[in-house]
Amino acid sequence: MIYLIKIIDPIFILYLDDKFISNRILRQLNNSRKIIDILEIFKINGIEVFPDAVILLSNFFDTLKNNSESITYQLKKNDYNDWYIYYTSFEINDENIRIAYANQLKNYHTFYELRRLSKTGSDKLVQISSLPNKFYSYWYISPDEYEDFNLQQIQMMNNLNHVFFVAIKKGFLCFENFYQQYLEPYDIFTTSLLRDSGGEKNRETLFQKFIQVVMSQFSIIDIKYSDSDHYTNLDNIEEIKNKSVRKQFVYEYLLQKHLKKTNNPLKELDIKSEFWLPAYSSNEETFTPLPKYMDDYIKLIGINIKTVIDSYLETEEK
To answer: How far is C-alpha 275 from the chain's CA centre?
Structure first.
């Protein structure tokens, strides 16, 4: 289970069995805001029934976390001003974007602060690979553009702290809640950064579209200690159905019920179950898809024990 924390952002680990996990790792996990709180939902007839893990999978976030590639962005200063007060406008790849930071001075272009921090650039251009945390950016992305979104575009939103991306990373599924907490207290964000966002209703519509693009499914994981031969042996089918498969139905039912009851924005996402089985391999692959099982209703995933143990030792030594 520790390996999950290494490869998946803790905000998307909705539940994790804490047996055999050190207090330090637990603190790291518990200090992260959860994008959905499901800790109280796994009860049926007054009895608690917990899976080993529940994670929210993203089409892009997990890839970004494990991608070390560095991209340099060239920002061109645009001298357009908002009501002769704020200067936050830039051009990048022929696209207009706005970048600002809290308590930014009036009549002081964001460009000069970025150039000071990056220690590079000219009178009009500055090169950066990512924005510091205190900076936010916004540029308009139409609903049609989201249909063909790719990793490069998502990476730009991540590296340049687009407010939609930051909101999800901070665990918000409602942009207005993020706006009220992080943006509304600062005049520069409300009057300049989000000037072209179309107002509260339009922002929320676009944000919900973004959520649907980047999120893919819920995965409910149970760790098993028998190998794949045990699960594919026809003589064991009834036993497995009685001991394991029915529990997965219960987990899925309780999660789906909670999402519908709370009208969660992710209520239409698929909920999939996985059995993680021990596997031994000398190669570096951690996860190995195993033969199709129960018409693929439950996926069997082989976990390279050697890789997981090495990861555990590496994590604990830090």
So the answer is: 23
Low-confidence ranges of the chain (pLDDT < 70): 1-3, 20, 22, 62, 65-69, 281-284, 308-318
Name the residue with tokens 């409602």. Answer: 174
Q: CA 232, CA 224: separation in Å to the nearest integer? A: 14
* Residue closest to 74 by CA, chosen among 56, 90, 85: 90
Distance CA 318, CA 313 (A): 9
Instruction: Give which of 279, 299, 292, 305 is closest to 222, Cα–Cα.
Output: 299
| Spatial distance between the Cα atoms of 92 and 80, rounded to a whole number of angstroms | 15
CA pair distance 5, 170, nearest whole angstrom: 16
For residue 281, the model assigns a pLDDT of 67
The confidence score (pLDDT) of residue 17 equals: 81
- Per DSSP, the residues of the chain read -HHHHHHS-GGGEEEE--TT--HHHHHHHHTSPPSS--TT--EETTEE---SEEEEEESSHHHHHT------EEEEE----BTTTB--EEEETTEEEEEEETTPPTT--HHHHHHHHHT---SSEEEESS--TTEEEE----HHHHHT--HHHHHHHHHTTBHHHHHHHTT-SSHHHHIIIIITT-HHIIIIITTTS-HHHHHHHHHHHHHHHHEEEEEEEEE-SS-HHHHH-GGGHHHHIIIIIHHHHHHHHHHHHHHHHTT-TTTTSEEEEEEEEEE--SSS-SEEE-S--GGGTEEEEEEEHHHHHHHHHHHHH-
CA–CA separation, 187 vs 68, rounded Å?
35
**The dihedral formed by the CA atoms of 51, 53, 59 and 65, expressed in degrees to the nearest 10:** 180
Integer Cα distance of 159 and 60 in angstroms: 13
- For 165, other C-beta atoms within 10 Å of its C-beta total 23
